[in-house]
Design brief:
It is globular, with a radius of gyration of 16 Å. Helix content is about 45%, strand content about 15%. The chain has helices at about 25-65, 75-90, 125-140, and strands at about 95-100, 105-110, 145-150, 160-165. It starts with about 20 loop residues before the first helix and ends with a strand. Strand 3 and strand 4 (about 160-165) form a beta hairpin. The protein is built from three helices and four strands, in the order H-H-E-E-H-E-E. The protein has a four-stranded antiparallel β-sheet. Helix 1 (about 25-65) runs parallel beside helix 3 (about 125-140). With about 170 residues, the protein is an alpha+beta fold.
Amino acid sequence: MEKKLKESCLDVGTECVLGHICYKYASMVMSGLVEALEYFGGKQGTKVLRRILAKRIPMQMMEAMDVDPSLLKKFSKEEMAKILPQMIKSKGGPDISIEIMDNGQIRFTLNECHFLPYSKSKGFCNITAGLMLGFAQMLSGKPMDIEEIQTIAKGGDSCIFIAKPKF
């Protein structure tokens, strides 16, 4: 019988959600990579990063939480917008609220930044934006774009991202 190993992050006191990699060490490595990408690739580079992350991270996050993403298809997007934040929070993730707006846009509000204590790099907003973009596309079933409205790393009270249908 195969035993599934669960790792705990010593620095946050909860089970790791993103592929069982502790935030502290992932943050140190990723902050340098994101800064280099922004420097050499500019806005286009960060746009590509967000799209790559949107394709991979939400599904990896679901797997890490022992959730079969295909089961989420049973729910309406409004129900999923309520379920996803509860699941993420229950596994030690950030406090997220998801609001589906009448115009097809989806608003994500995060009241905490898990990366900020470990990295002063503001580039992590792109990683969060990529994750929110992935969730938006999962909820809508359509290609979306994402806009950063405000972030904690840049002095805001919360992180706000708006996903808009891509035309």
